[in-house]
Amino acid sequence: MSTTNQQPARFRVGIATDDAAVALRDHLAEVLRDDERVVEVIDFGVRDADDHTPYPIPCIRAAEAIRDGAIDRAVVLGGTGLGEAISANKVRGVRAAVATDPFSLERSVLSNNCQVLALGERVVGFPLAARLVTDWLGYRFDPQSPSAAKVAVITEYEATGRLSSQN
Question: Are 118 and 62 in contact, with CB atoms under 8 Å apart?
Fold first, then answer.
């Protein structure tokens, strides 16, 4: 993960899926490639719907790429997006959220500095998913915002395993 909260104007985006969301992955990969804010789309997912690799594997790989600075953001996909978000959140320094409405999507970045958006093919239609992904690229976390102190608490706990005495 990049050690700064600076968000680039142009993104390297990872996309990860299991066999439950191959069609949505293909659709969103095309949406991302057509977006002028995206300079690269890197696929961490399964090859096709016959590849039954467990969903945590591609999701963790995408989250590790964020942690390592190889990509700026990632979209992780599955049946619901829930397990995919949980998996990505296991990587230190990475924050993932399932966001299926515009307000939650906005707050995932502006309030929580999430780098990973999780969606489920079984619960979100393709047009909504495309809108969410394109809207999501427009949000940047402001490290001077009131939310920055809250994100710092999460980051500190993640690093130390305890809340500071100031909290």
Answer: no
Interatomic CA distance for residues 155 and 54, integer angstroms: 28
DSSP state of 47: S
Could you tell me the pTM of the whole model? 0.91
In angstroms, the first-to-last Cα distance of the chain is: 25
Q: Which of 65, 163, 60 is nearest to 118 (CA)?
A: 60
Q: What span, in angstroms and rounded, lies between the C-alpha atoms of 49 and 71? A: 25
Q: Is the pLDDT of residue 102 over 70?
A: yes
Alpha carbons 18 and 21: distance in angstroms, whole number: 6
Is pLDDT above 90 for 16?
yes
